[in-house]
Write a structure and sequence with these properties.
Blueprint: H1 4-24, H2 28-78
Helix pairs in contact: 1-2
Length: 84
């Protein structure tokens, strides 16, 4: 899984490309493509944050499951009775 910083870096590359290529390359094509490239950069960064929060939520859920399982495992190994 890619990290948040990877999405931000890629989004910034698109932002830089969209904002500068129109000025560096004197053609109508790059003047028209600048705005869509900048829009794509915003979408990539937003998607990166969305994935970051989704993955973080899954990791937290896994930690809770592992934490409870390990407590139950230790109690079973020790031979402790259920403390209800």
């Amino acid at each position: 899984e890619r990290t948040l910083l990877t999405y931000i870096r890629t989004g910034l590359y698109f932002l830089v490309a969209g904002s500068t290529l129109g000025h560096l390359v004197e053609s109508a094509f790059w003047n028209l493509m600048g705005t869509p490239l900048m829009a794509v950069s915003v979408v990539i960064i937003a998607f990166g944050f969305l994935r970051f929060y989704q993955i973080r939520k899954k990791i937290e859920a896994t930690k809770k499951q592992i934490g409870q399982a390990s407590i139950e495992f230790v109690r079973t190994v020790r031979g402790d009775e259920d403390d209800a």
